[in-house]
């Protein structure tokens, strides 16, 4: 039985194909259109999913859409009517696209796919919950989903058992932890729905001096984790901004202009909203444990991408273990919708796998060596073909020599994280690598931390963690043995001045609070990537490398060999690996100053 799951129209639209309960393919539309966080109907992602299994739309038994468009439309209408006439400008802007497109989702699916079968509409948080529980390694577990907003729900929790999920509680719009975090994303000068992870990365540079003010004025939090926003400070419900003028007054000034210089104020604001988020997520988790009495927790929704909060939930030991959907945001709703249809709607049995059923999240397009060879030949690109054994040894040596390597292998990752198939790699031991990769490779803000890919079997020797973190969704501290104490002068530094002080034996991946957002690499899930790190460990005695996504700021992660090569040639990467082909920057035809370099004023 073939089930196609679709998410679309808000951000990160995606498609997922489930065949007889097995996730066969999944991809985000942005990877094909090259428009970051593309929200349009995922025609290209759907085509990929079907073509990858040699299917056409007539072969589909069900299509599942990740929310209920009419219920969401009802929420918009009720909100605008309740605030009339204040919300009129926002209402007038939103209605044309709803009337023309969004409320006709069923008709658009039938038209665009040429599909005549049944279409299932689980609600938004059901899709998130299904994406969290059904692929998880637990036969029974609680679930907690937290995001901006679905139809009405912004937070939900419940219990999953065998092939069913049951929602036990919800918090409704406009009271939203995700939108609170997005309000601070906007106020600190970053883009909503894409810059939230920048706020998370900025937080350790500040102190949570505004935490008490946020809890006093912006959000009322109960002991069970439930909360209410004070809407006089927000404008997202009916306006065209995230925050109201009263928000500016409360925090002594207007929002930071995008791309302007970051100040200690933004760092302290980031630290404060992160502290509030951590506290609420822990309270919610404790309440979910109390109600469900489950030993395990599954997380999804955009807030579940906050790996700092996830790490704190884990360290509180509220549950024996937690599992987070690697595509926890709206893209993962396509997976949830399809699996909801298979298990809950059709009643098909489910047996949890020991790790999980996401297959490392390697669910996207792949390119054979013959396809890569054809691309290289057509474009007269000089490259060396190496066996797997020689390739990993050679690349490990290059990374140990502080070279930056683009690494393009196998199936593209599904979700926001590169996990070793569409990655840029570097030496975690290097004191200069963070600034080099941020400014010369990624063209992004200097404060942004990098993540390590560490051998799963050696992760606990370097990090304070006792379990796998395969999807880069947990933060753990570097172990005390590998930390470096700061000098008295260094301890007096503030903000960005702290950036260049080495804090461990692996300074390129150690954030200023001694933490790291780590990916543990398993030999079974990712054998070639695992072997690369094994070879690096043999050379250096260090079982980890830097892993950052294969893209530059403002661009989606690369999908094709051509996109990988273009990114490689336009940035400061030293080498590129496409499958088994190794390409050196030296000898390649160099482009002139690129648009990226102009935009970010880089040499």
Q: Would you write up a description of this structure?
A:
With 603 residues, the protein is an alpha/beta fold. Among the domains are: 169 residues, Nucleotidyltransferase, domain 5 (2-Layer Sandwich); 232 residues, Carbamoyltransferase, C-terminal domain (DHBP synthase, Alpha-Beta Complex), CATH 3.90.870. The protein is built from 21 helices and 21 strands. The strands form 4 sheets. A 9-stranded mixed sheet has the order 13-21-20-14-15-19-16-18-17, sandwiched between helices. A 5-stranded mixed sheet has the order 3-2-1-4-5, with helices on both faces. A 5-stranded mixed sheet has the order 8-7-6-11-12, sandwiched between helices. A hairpin with a 2-residue loop joins strand 2 and strand 3. The C terminus is likely disordered.
């Amino acid at each position: 039985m073939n089930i196609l799951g679709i998410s679309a129209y808000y951000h990160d639209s995606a498609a997922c194909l489930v065949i007889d309960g097995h996730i066969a393919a999944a991809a985000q539309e942005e990877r094909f259109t090259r428009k970051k966080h593309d929200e349009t109907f995922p025609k290209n992602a759907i085509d990929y999913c079907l073509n990858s299994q040699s299917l056409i739309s007539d072969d589909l038994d069900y299509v599942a859409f990740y929310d209920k468009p009419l219920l969401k439309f009802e929420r918009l209408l009720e909100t605008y009517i309740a605030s009339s006439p204040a919300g009129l400008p926002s209402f007038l802007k939103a209605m044309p696209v709803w009337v023309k497109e969004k409320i006709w989702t069923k008709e658009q699916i039938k038209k665009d796919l040429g599909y005549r079968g049944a279409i299932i509409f689980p609600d938004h948080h059901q899709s998130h919950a299904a994406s969290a529980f059904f692929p998880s390694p637990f036969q029974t577990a609680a679930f907690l989903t937290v995001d901006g907003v679905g139809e009405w729900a912004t937070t939900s929790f419940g219990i999953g058992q065998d092939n069913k999920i049951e929602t036990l509680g919800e918090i409704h719009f406009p009271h939203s932890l995700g939108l609170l975090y997005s309000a601070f994303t906007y106020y600190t000068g970053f883009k909503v729905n894409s810059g939230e992870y920048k706020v998370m990365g900025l937080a350790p540079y500040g102190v949570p001096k505004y935490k008490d003010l946020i809890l006093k004025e912006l959000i009322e939090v109960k002991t069970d984790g439930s909360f209410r926003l004070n809407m006089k400070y927000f404008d997202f419900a009916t306006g065209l901004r995230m925050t109201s003028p009263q928000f500016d007054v409360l925090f002594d000034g207007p929002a930071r202009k995008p791309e302007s210089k970051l100040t200690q104020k933004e760092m302290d604001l980031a630290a404060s909203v992160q502290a509030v988020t951590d506290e609420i997520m822990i309270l919610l988790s404790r309440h979910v444990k109390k109600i469900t009495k489950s030993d395990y927790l599954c997380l999804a929704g955009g807030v579940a991408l906050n790996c700092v909060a996830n790490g704190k939930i884990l360290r509180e030991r509220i549950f024996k273990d937690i599992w987070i959907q690697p595509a926890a945001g709206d893209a993962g709703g396509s997976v949830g919708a399809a699996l909801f249809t298979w298990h809950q709607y059709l009643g098909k049995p489910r047996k949890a796998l020991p790790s999980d059923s996401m297959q490392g999240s390697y669910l996207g397009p792949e390119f054979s060596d013959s396809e890569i060879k054809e691309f290289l030949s057509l474009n007269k690109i000089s490259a060396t073909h190496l066996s797997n054994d020689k390739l990993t040894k050679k690349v490990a040596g290059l990374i140990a020599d502080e070279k930056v390597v683009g690494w393009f292998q196998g199936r593209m990752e599904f979700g926001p994280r590169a996990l070793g198939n569409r990655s840029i790699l570097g030496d975690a031991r290097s004191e200069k690598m963070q600034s080099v990769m941020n400014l010369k490779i990624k063209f992004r803000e200097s404060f942004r931390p990098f993540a390590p890919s560490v051998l799963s079997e050696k992760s606990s020797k370097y990090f304070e963690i006792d379990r796998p973190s395969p999807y880069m969704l947990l933060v753990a501290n570097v172990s005390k043995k590998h930390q470096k104490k700061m000098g008295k002068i260094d301890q007096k530094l503030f903000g960005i001045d702290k950036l260049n002080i080495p804090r461990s034996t692996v300074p390129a991946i150690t954030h200023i609070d001694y933490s790291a957002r780590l990916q543990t690499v398993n030999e079974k899930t990712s054998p070639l990537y695992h072997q690369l790190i094994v070879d690096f460990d043999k050379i250096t005695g260090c079982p980890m490398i830097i892993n950052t996504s294969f893209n530059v700021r403002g661009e989606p992660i690369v999908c094709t060999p051509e996109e990988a090569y273009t990114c490689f040639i336009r940035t400061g990467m030293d080498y590129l690996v496409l499958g088994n082909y190794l390409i050196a920057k030296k000898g390649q035809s160099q482009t002139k100053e690129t648009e990226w370099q102009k935009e970010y004023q880089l040499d």
